[in-house]
Structure formats: structure tokens, C-alpha cells
Write a structure and sequence with these properties.
The protein contains two helices and no strands. It is elongated, with a radius of gyration of 23 Å. Helices cover 41% and strands 0% of the residues. By secondary structure, it is mainly alpha-helical.
């Protein structure tokens, strides 16, 4: 209760809420897409909708490249 407000209410500050640093875990929506393509998407700030379209195109044409 050392952090209680001096006004007398019983609200206690929690020093930021999380209790330390927290890095959210991002699930990879495109595990089959190469890292260099994802880096380009990030660099050019490609929207999620465009990423889905490009991933579909990549998957369809993957057989042609190999």
C-alpha cells in the first residue's frame, strides 16, 4: 500500500501494469514465403490484403520456378 494515493481512496498504482518488458509473439501468417520477400513487404509497408494476394501468386507460381 506504499503506492496508495494520498487522497484516501483505495486505488493503488501498478507501475505500468505488465510488471516488466513484454514482447508480443507474432504468429507468422506466411510460413512458406521466403524471408527476403517478407523483408521487402516490411520495407515497402505492404498492406495485409496485398500480402495475401502476393502470397497466393507466389504459391501458384512456385512450381514453375523449381
Amino acid at each position: 500500500m506504499s503506492n496508495a494515493r494520498p487522497t484516501g481512496d483505495h486505488h493503488v498504482e501498478n507501475q505500468g501494469g505488465r510488471g516488466g518488458s513484454f514482447t508480443p509473439i507474432k504468429k507468422d501468417a506466411f510460413p512458406d514465403i521466403p524471408a527476403h520477400v517478407k523483408e521487402l513487404w516490411d520495407k515497402f509497408k505492404t498492406t495485409d490484403a496485398d500480402r495475401v494476394i502476393e502470397a497466393k501468386y507466389y504459391r501458384e507460381n512456385k512450381a514453375k520456378r523449381t
